[in-house]
Amino acid sequence: MLEIDGIHTYYGLSHVLHSLSLRVEKGEVVCLLGRNGAGKSTTMRSIMGLTPPRIGKILFKDESLIGMKPFRIARKGIGFVPDTREVFADLSIEENLEISERRFPERSLWDRSRAYELFPALKKIRSRKAGCLSGGERQMLTIARALVTNPDFLLLDEPTEGLAPLIVAMLEETIGEFRSLGLTVLLAEQNQKVALGLSDRAYIIDNGAIRWQGTVENLRENEPVRKKYLLV
Ligand SMILES: Nc1ncnc2c1ncn2[C@@H]1O[C@H](COP(=O)(O)OP(=O)(O)OP(=O)(O)O)[C@@H](O)[C@H]1O
Ligand SMILES: [Mg+2]
């Protein structure tokens, strides 16, 4: 479904991604694991066209995303939950979801009421301004907002970072359900526990390059690799 081949991405003169390649097949949950500053968010920004790579290929459903504007990339069916958890602070939860809703003839699963079924806590406070939400509520809203655009591919950038354990457990359960809802997921994480519990395959990124890839079972057994790249 997604195929990244040899991308190099820069911030100005700073060369951040070095010939990075990865693939995600339809129906998979794949995690991109790496420490602080490894290049996880930059990989996601490269896919979304927010920081487009200078070299390399990105194909989504066999179509090149290179040179495409971020809003067009989103309309191809990619939902992005950025680490910034940006919401429209002056709008209510309900309004945030309303302006994000999008329907497609070929796939129209999600709307506000479906999103509220997934996150009942949001429904109770749906008239509250998004600027007044807790970290966990805000993260639920950013995920719900991505879902109501009806993507078939979801990019989640450290969705559980900095949240209370109870909220983390709830989000883990929700993300675990995405596969059965027909979503393909690329999940960026520093938190091995969350990522390994949810994913089929893993890529380890360090200093802007993929250092290891394989199944989650293989990574669990490979302590040297986890020690080298993941444990802090
Ligand atoms: N806007 C920017 N301008 C310049 N350099 C940046 C910018 N954003 C990130 N970088 C640099 O690019 C590298 C990769 O950062 P990135 O945010 O992709 O890492 P990350 O794996 O997402 O880290 P974290 O786990 O902290 O979110 C880092 O060295 C970082 O300092
Ligand atoms: Mg990041």
Characterise the protein shown here:
With 232 residues, the protein is an alpha/beta fold. The protein has a domain of 162 residues: Rossmann fold, CATH 3.40.50. It is built from ten helices and ten strands. The protein has a six-stranded mixed beta sheet, with helices on both faces. Helix 7 links the parallel strand 7 and strand 8. Helix 3 packs parallel to helix 6. The longest helix has 14 residues. The protein starts with a strand and ends with a helix. Magnesium ion (MG) binds next to helix 1. Magnesium ion binds next to helix 1.
What are the defining features of this structure?
232 residues, alpha/beta, Rossmann fold, six-stranded mixed β-sheet, four-stranded antiparallel β-sheet, globular, binds adenosine-5'-triphosphate, binds magnesium ion
User: What is the number of helical segments per DSSP (H or I, 4+ residues)?
Assistant: 10
**Regarding CATH, which class of the domain at 27-38 and 80-229?**
Alpha Beta
The total of beta strands comes to 10
Tell me the CATH topology of the domain at 27-38 and 80-229.
Answer: Rossmann fold
First CA to last CA: what distance?
32 Å
Helix/strand order = EEEHEEHEHHHHEHEHEEHH
Structural class: alpha/beta
